[in-house]
Amino acid sequence: MTINHIALDEVDSTNNYLKQHRAELPDGTLVTAALQTAGKGRRGHDWLADRGMLPFSLLLKNPPHPDTVTLCAAVAVCGALEELLPKESFGIKWPNDIILRGHKLCGILCESVCFGSSMDVICGIGINISQTEEFFQTAGIPHGGSLKMLTGFVPDRETLAREISRRLYEYSREGFPAVSEQYIKHCLTVGKTVRIIENGREREAFAEGIEPNGFLVCRDETGRFEVNSGEVSVRGLLGYI
Ligand code: BTN
After folding, report:
1. Ligand 1 center from residue 108 Cα (angstroms)
2. CATH classification code of 193-236
3. Is the beta carbon of 32 within 6 A of some atom in ligand 1?
4. Cα–Cα distance measured from residue 222 to residue 59, given in angstroms and rounded to the nearest whole number
5. What CATH number does domain 4-176 carry, 3.40.220.10, 3.40.630.30, 3.30.930.10, 1.10.3720.10?
6. 65 lines ligand 1 (CB under 6 A)
7. Which residue owns the Cα nearest ligand 1 atom 9?
8. pTM above 0.70, yes or no
9. Where in the chain is the domain with CATH 3.30.930.10?
């Protein structure tokens, strides 16, 4: 698969760019930007960043398994980063935060656009490449961290975005079951007691596993139940992870 790469200097949001232009762009278009001025995070939050963050989005036209693209993206990010830094352990906080040495290194926001009976998915990925510790403190994101801050290593941004996109495109065709073993190997949530937050209410449960549809399988004193990432937030007992 050849990725069609559009490299921008500045944009409001790489996800928005693909939403606006997707009709005239081919499947597998990657948009990167040096600076994103109005980045969007999950649950309607802003995604604040300076030029130290690498924002990019991949356009997947009518993907066969749209619901699990976001989990495939987490595996693609871990795989590409591990190739660059084989001694580091990259973890996934369910469903798709990438964690390095206890810090959030990367966030993923998938958005879909429906038209008729079809649906395109825009998978947006923000990797903290070279922001300083002061940046995260000032921004009020104490659990955030960048590759440079945590490891001293600064990869080539465009090459990294292309490699992750290449992997993500392939996994999105195959579907989550093809990479679920890798996902679970990296997952920091499975095998832990976590706090599940739904509509402002919190309950504790043991996270047992991941279903093929990406739902988190949990157990508490009431028995087994599944949670969907669109409806709940999950936190560790003592903090973010
Ligand atoms: C999160 O809340 O963890 C998800 C953050 C996703 C940020 C990326 S940066 C590239 C793409 N464009 C956006 O506006 N958001 C995503």
Report:
1. 5
2. 2.30.30.100
3. no
4. 41
5. 3.30.930.10
6. no
7. 126
8. yes
9. 4-176
Which position has the token pair 């990432």? 229
Pocket test of ligand 1: the residue of 43, 97, 109 to mutate, having most ligand atoms within 8 Å of its CB, is 109
Q: Which residue has tokens 């656009």?
A: 113
Rounded distance from Cα 193 to ligand 1 centre (Å): 27
Which atom of ligand 1 is nearest the CA belonging to 15? Answer: 12
Q: Which two tokens stand for residue 145?
A: 């961290």
Protein residue with its CA nearest to atom 11 in ligand 1: 124
Sequence ranges of the chain with CATH classification 2.30.30.100 = 193-236
The answer to whether residue 200 scores a pLDDT higher than 90 is no
Quick: pLDDT tens for 148-175.
Answer: 999 999 999 999 999 999 999 999 999 9
The answer to whether residues 164 and 129 touch, using CB atoms and an 8 Å cutoff, is: no
Give pLDDT tens digits for 211-225.
999 999 999 999 999
Ligand 1 contact, 14 CB (< 6 A): yes
CA 73 to ligand 1 center in whole angstroms: 12
Q: What are phi and psi of 108, to 5 degrees?
A: -130, 130
In angstroms, the CA 223 to CA 205 distance is 10
Q: How far is the CA of 105 from the centre of ligand 1 (A)?
A: 12
73 backbone dihedrals φ, ψ, rounded to 5°? -65, -40
Contact 111, 15 (CB under 8 A): yes
Q: According to the model, what pLDDT value does residue 195 have?
A: 95
Q: How far apart are CA 186 and CA 175, in angstroms?
A: 17
